[in-house]
Amino acid sequence: MMDQKHDSEGDYLVLPSDSEVTAGHDLRLRGLTAKDQPQHAAHLKRLSSEDRYSRFQGVVSDEAIDAYSCGLDWNRVLIFGVFVDGTLRAIGELLGDPGGADAEIAVSVETDYQHIGFGKQLVLAMVLAARATGVERIVISFLHDNDGMRGLAKDIGAEMQSMSGVTLSVKTMPKRT
Q1: At what angle do helices 62-71 and 37-46 cross, to 10 degrees?
Q2: More confident position, 25 or 67
Q3: 63's torsion region: left (phi>0), alpha (psi -120 to 50) or beta?
Q4: Are the beta carbons of 120 and 152 closer than 8 angstroms?
Q5: What is the structure's pLDDT at 133?
Q6: What pLDDT digit, counting tens, does each position of 9-23 carry?
Q7: What H or E segment, with its residue span, contains residue 152?
Q8: Are strands 137-143 and 78-84 parallel, antiparallel or unpaired?
């Protein structure tokens, strides 16, 4: 069961600690804002070289990560983060134009926190946010060997198509009533 709370950082959900890795730790899921940009960049820089390659579908330097993070229009993207004891360990980004029909999902989870449900929590949060903001289609692009993203795309019922080493998955959102 997740509890919704509020503190100086804003509203957040307290996530259950169902894993040995997270037992006894403070786990929070919340939306990020521009003031979180330094933590956003720091999280991306802590990704292993393999995880960076999977997230960006190519090799990226720390400088490129700083440019990416600083270049985000924090008023136009929706980014959620999972914090473990106050440190950002996983992020989900919903990238698209406000009012646009399509939005892309990108997820990154630090190695020590993979396969314990953070990615799934983030994807579910982004699907709900996409629906609430009128997004019609969610697109997830990932490398063929990224089984974690394949599983997450499958979990939300996305249709998948492979091409040139990349899998493109598309989730058509139900119409809002």
Answers
A1: 150
A2: 67
A3: alpha
A4: yes
A5: 86
A6: 655 455 555 656 566
A7: helix 147-155
A8: unpaired
